[in-house]
Design goal:
The protein has twelve helices and 14 strands. It is of the alpha/beta class. The C terminus is likely disordered. The structure holds nicotinamide-adenine-dinucleotide (NAD) and uridine-5'-diphosphate-4-deoxy-4-fluoro-alpha-D-galactose.
Length: 344
């Protein structure tokens, strides 16, 4: 099957490309490289030994997308492309609403026009109302920032689309906290500037690029007072997409699945496991809570286990080891940053 992967040069997209190619899918990637590098796709080719068909296309450019759909017969789409920083979305909501919503609308319009109606969409655990227990797919929804709003609005658009035309087959995947990297150390998370997320921050402290980790609060009602998250290996997340694409090939409707491990680890626990696995020392300091953070966020992943026959396989130790291998092999990430692309 020929799959179009939007945002395929990004962190989760590049790992998913590897899994798709290994499962014998034919992959076409589009990405505007705003938050990624073409080098990631070169590395995917190195890992898989297969060529990737890549187009540098901005999803907002409808004519470019139409051209591609005209030229290539696409059977299904995995839609990763979008902006993903919560804090940036609070500072610049219009940028987030424009890119994430308009990009998705253009994609859906073009898919509709060319009668391509199989879609896997990247949603997020950020759509859930914070709770102290495991979140299943029926849990209450609430967005607390523009980024989360874009995910909720797109989920609703997809439901409305299916109501209007029930030949669409759509799977919405709500990821918890993807971390880690491909075992080869060739691809991984490559944040631009100072990382917002925990594990990339930890690896940059360990490699000496950053001085110390700031732990945002140790007075939460959790086992050690630090925040608890459902960290999941990015390769497990990528594998979930293979199951979802197979699922929508044989069923219709809009299905929603959590991709998480079902187990929460605290920030302090992750730091300890990382130190243990890598023998690196993480300097840290506890500071105030980060505005907008919740105490606990973890999944009930049983629906994906039952209906997709998917479950997360990789341990927290493996997540740390693989992230560290990636960091050591690529202390400056892919080196080519979006800023350099714009400047050149
Ligand atoms: P990423 O930024 O690494 O990848 C997104 C890719 O989309 C980038 O390569 C970027 O250049 C591209 N892109 C953005 N806007 C585009 C546009 N208009 N046209 C073409 N390409 C565009 O992010 P990621 O971590 O791989 O996340 C992938 C998806 O998963 C996103 O939709 C994100 O919101 C969602 N998600 C991520 C996480 C996480 O923790 N990483 C958690 C939950 C959900
Ligand atoms: N944390 C620190 N110090 C840091 C970074 C994070 O203590 O430097 C703590 C946070 O306070 C939180 C935990 O580590 O308790 C995890 O924080 P992340 O920023 O790594 O992840 P979040 O759970 O806040 O958010 C992530 C993505 C969101 C997504 C959400 C759910 O960044 O986009 O997971 O999928 F919506």
């Amino acid at each position: 099957m020929r799959v179009l992967v939007t945002g395929g040069a990004g962190y989760i997209g590049s790992h998913t490309c590897v899994e798709l190619i290994n499962a014998n899918f034919e992959v076409i990637v589009i990405d505007n490289l705003y938050n990624s590098s073409k080098v990631a796709l070169d590395r995917v080719e190195k890992i898989t030994g297969k060529k990737i068909e890549f187009y540098q296309i901005d999803l907002l450019c409808e004519s470019d997308l139409e051209e591609l759909f005209k030229k290539r017969k696409i059977e299904s789409v995995i839609h990763f492309a979008g902006y993903k920083s919560v804090s940036e979305s609070v500072e610049n909501p219009l940028m987030y609403y424009t890119n994430n919503l308009s990009g998705t609308l253009v994609l859906l319009k073009v898919m509709n026009k060319f009668n391509v109606k199989k879609l896997v969409f990247s949603s997020s655990a950020t759509v859930y109302t914070p709770a102290m227990g495991a979140l299943d797919e029926e849990a209450d929804l609430k967005a607390t920032n523009p980024y989360g709003q874009t995910k909720l609005i797109i989920e609703q658009i997809l439901r409305d689309l299916y109501i209007s035309d029930n030949t669409w087959n759509i799977s919405i995947l709500r990821y918890f906290n993807p971390i880690g990297a491909h075992k080869s150390g060739e691809i991984g998370e490559d944040p631009d500037g100072i990382p917002n997320n925990l594990l990339p921050y930890i690896t940059q402290v360990a490699v000496g690029k950053l001085e110390e980790l700031k732990i945002y609060g140790n007075d939460y009602p959790t086992k050690d007072g630090t925040g608890v998250r459902d960290f999941i290996h990015v390769v497990d997340v990528a594998r979930g997409h293979i199951k979802a694409i197979e699922y929508i090939d044989s069923s219709s409707g809009v299905s929603i699945f959590n991709l998480g491990t079902g187990r929460g680890y605290s920030v302090m626990e992750l730091v300890s496991v990382f130190e243990e696995e890598t023998k690196a020392k993480i300097n840290y300091r506890v500071v105030d809570r980060r505005p907008g953070d919740t105490a606990i966020c973890y999944s009930n992943p049983s629906k994906a286990e039952v209906e997709l026959n998917w479950r997360a396989m990789k341990s927290i130790e493996e997540m740390c080891e693989d992230a560290w291998r990636w960091q050591l092999k690529n202390p400056n990430g892919y080196k080519v940053r979006k800023s350099e692309i714009w400047e050149s």
